[in-house]
Amino acid sequence: xxxLQRLRADHAPALLAFERENxxxxxxxxxxxxxxxxxxxxxxxxxxxxxxxxxxxxxHVLVADDGTTILGRFNLMDIEDGEAELGxxxxxxxxGQGLATQAAHAVCHLAATDYALTSLRAQAxxxxxxxxxxxxxxxxxxxxxxxLRNGTAGRRYVKExxxxxxxATGL
Length: 171
Ligand SMILES: CC(C)(COP(=O)(O)OP(=O)(O)OC[C@H]1O[C@@H](n2cnc3c(N)ncnc32)[C@H](O)[C@@H]1OP(=O)(O)O)[C@@H](O)C(=O)NCCC(=O)NCCS
Prior knowledge:
Elements: E1 3-6, H1 12-21, H2 23-27, H3 35-39, H4 41-54, E2 60-63, E3 70-80, E4 83-90, H5 99-112, E5 119-125, H6 129-137, E6 141-147, E7 153-160
Helix pairs in contact: 5-6
The structure holds coenzyme A.
């Protein structure tokens, strides 16, 4: 069963492969990261680990049964006053199996327990039906509409978190 793991330095090669192999897939629904992201990947990876150490973000990768291949990313970003923004993306080859929904549940549990967060926000393009399904199934509710960073219309979500037992990372 795939495992949700907190981002580490040694995830870098598999994470770069995940982003490269799925670049065109992601660009169909969310903003492309641009060529600079790939050229500067090692420095950016180190920067994410620094943010994580500083407690402003908690990054996670969904690792396949082979222990190496990355199937998805589930990130808690811009943490402030107990609130964070949830962002996620799955490898095209791993979609349609309910894995994003399960991982979203798991990262919400981590947010409430290990990270002691009280509320999560999320947003998705109005046309991104798979993302709306994942967020709704993970317990998010719609709070309104917004304009996303790429200029398209989006829907905003929130999920209030209740504290619980720490330590669960399996799906
Ligand atoms: C959104 C995303 C994470 C969903 O991943 P996933 O693992 O396929 O999600 P799940 O299988 O848990 O659930 C998705 C549900 O949406 C449904 N769905 C997928 N595409 C759909 C579409 N075009 N119209 C309606 N429903 C759709 C699936 O059938 C599934 O429902 P089901 O279980 O009843 O079949 C994945 O498609 C992805 O990474 N897309 C590119 C990046 C992205 O959009 N990220 C989110 C940004 S907000």
